[in-house]
Amino acid sequence: MVCGLGPAGRALAHRALAHGLSVTAVDPHPGRRWTATYGGWADELPGWLDPAVVAATVDRPIAWGTRRFEIDRRYVVFDTAALRGALDLGGARVIADRVESLGTEPTGTKGPWRVRLSAGEVLTADRVIDARGLTRSPARAEQTAFGVIVPADRWSEPLFMDWRPDNGAAPGEPPSFLYAIPLGPNRFLLEETCLAGRPALPLPTLRTRLLHRLRSRGIDLHGDEPTEHVRFPLEGGRPTAHRFGAAGAMLHPATGYSLTASLSAADAYATGAPPHPVRTRLVHRLRTAGLRSLLALPPTDLPAFFDAFFALPPHHQRAYLSATTDLPATAAAMTALFTAVPWRIRRTLITATLGRG
């Protein structure tokens, strides 16, 4: 049984069906249209995924800290409707209801799982995986973004992350960056993004910064452009065999990316062979330390921090961004980054990393 039919849960249910399993899926709104824009690294995509779900590919996306970098890694942007359609659930029993509780009864036994729905029905299953995502809380860091969609003749440069200080923010204010990606051959999403904050920057502030940044680059909006609003927690996931997607800590706490990691792990979880739990937990702890470091850095130091990151060799960048179970590679990447940043930033990183033991 899969609880939650967002992109991660739907991918898991789809792959369980592909392996011949009997699947029940529960979600309050299983037919809801997905409105968010999803992107990720091309080398993380599983072989079973239909290539038609990719709306655009950027061979070498651009990043700016205080200077320009070309990232040596292909980036893809999904056609959200096509992705949802490709994750077909034909053959599954889909229940439109909310999960109130789940677990085995009595506690600690190895008996069947029991899932209680808000309507009062109790379902049982040999395996239950929670893919309901993360709930928001003032105690949890969040990522926020405000974006507009413009025709491709008004913007053409793909930007993975642009920290240049032309968005009107004062030097001591919490920082934000520009994310600019193609949505296909004719459209670009331009999004002012707060990478992580506790609290994160509010959407009206990001909207003001985006308009200021675009005007400073000679682009005035008409006011009727489609918009995108983003807000989600970066903390709260736990890496276990019974949690998947953001709920299972597949969301990178220092970047917010999770979809391609969930897609690539769907087969293993569907067949009951999830990655090594100890290594997964340890990598997640290192990544969580990375989030604490980002939250602790003074706003004026973030561009220099990302200069150091994007100057790392590609294998270190890939390890930190994508290696969910490779503890030595993740630790090596973080060590390389630590030695590359200026001393003033190292002191902050040490304090933030060790601050919670």
From TrEMBL:
It comes from the Bacteria. InterPro entries: FAD/NAD-bd_sf (IPR036188). Pfam families: Lycopene_cycl (PF05834). PANTHER family: OS02G0190600 PROTEIN, PTHR39757. This is Lycopene cyclase family protein. It comes from Nocardia pulmonis.
